[in-house]
Predict the structure.
Amino acid sequence: MRTTFLPFSKPSISEAEIEAVAEVLRSGWITTGPKAAEFEEAFKAYCNAEGAVALCSGTAGMHLLLAAMGIGPGDEVITPSMTWVSTVNLITLAGATPVFADIERETLLVSAETVEPLITERTRLIIPVHFAGAAVDMDPLRQLSSAKNIPLVEDAAHAVGTQYRGERIGRRGTAIFSFHPIKNMTCGEGGMFCSDDPGLIEHIRRLKFHGLAKDAYDRNTQGRSPQAEVQEPGFKYNLTDMAAVLALGQLRRLDEFNRKRALLAHRYRELLANIDEIMPLAVPSYPMRHAWHLFVVRLDTKRVGMDRETFMAELKKRNIGTGIHFKAVHRQKYYHETLQLPEGALPNTEWNSDRIFSLPLFPDMTLNDVDEVVAAIKEVIA
């Protein structure tokens, strides 16, 4: 058994990145400034995106999007229930109604087939979620979006570095990324809003900082113009230079991070292939490159004779950390009580919600760590 605890996730921060943050602290300009502007340009180049706005979180990006679109009471937004609650919270707080699409049982991804029957005259937006580093099959959804004239925005919080049909997520349409500490790259807290709609990019840029016509840091004036005008009420969602300089270092190492994640995930899949009680997610068959944000498995509780929570507790006793990603949103207390969806309304979502948990996966892990995780799983099953 392991003698030290293996967390399910841990950020990889280099000494060079620590020093870069220290240099920003010494510079005297620690809020949104030249490093935030540099990060936007670097991320835009990485994704080959047409526009990018750095934000304090991915959740902020979703809030700004809903505000920019004027989504509110009477509107419906289609998204999966198998996701983190932040998007659904924001839809609800805007006064709109979340409408949940079921997922494919083996990938946890929505599809055009699960979304289309939910579209009504009140549908204002579709938000597919790229899950655990795998890409949703976007072409059919884009065709549906175009045919119905309903905007499509990708929740790419799990998809930094993910590719779909040869293009990185963020290259086309509108996508919102997260840089929370468990994500493939981090800056503590942060997000990026990417879009090929110049008008939307400018609107988000304005809304993220009080509705001013200029950023706190303007690239031309090297500061904020004293004549900057409030064009509409806005928010305070800018990314600081302290965070942005860390994100720049992480972005330079992102492809290497993802290569390490893929190597670890391949080892997991090899070692778990003959353990019937543990069912990893399937990798989609259409052309895509997985970023392996999470390694999610499902537990056959009948075979092992214990529930998921007990199984996870037994792994913790053996110094193996795990997580749940996620309990379905419609089963969270507030949404269960307010939406009152009947049991079985989302069969694939509910089946997975009862069984999923995430095994340790982060770049500084070793193949031996994976071996020890699987050994602990076998021990608990036995």
